Amino acid sequence: MKYTFKGNFGLMDLTIDEEGKAAGSYQKKGTLSGIFKAQKFSGSWENKGLEGIVEFTISGGILEGN
Q1: Using CA atoms, how far apart are residues 39 and 21, in angstroms rounded to an integer?
Q2: DSSP code string of 18-38
Q3: Which of 7, 14, 19, 43 is the most buried (most CB within 10 A)?
Q4: In the sheet where 62-65 sits, what is the strand order?
Q5: Residue 60 exposure: Cα atoms within 13 Å on the Cβ side
């Protein structure tokens, strides 16, 4: 499953495999990796030498989170 979202983070592409493993990219060199289960992504991000954790939901093709 592939998604593309547009937000204050720029464009984000997210790919989720059949086992729920998710990986994506955003801005010029930002990356996401984690698990997608029950419409919720839980994982980590890296961008410009920084990193952190992130959680969001995808419902009806809309990303909601912080």
Answers
A1: 12
A2: TTSEEEEEETTTEEEEEEEET
A3: 14
A4: 2-7, 10-16, 21-26, 30-37, 40-47, 50-59, 62-65
A5: 1
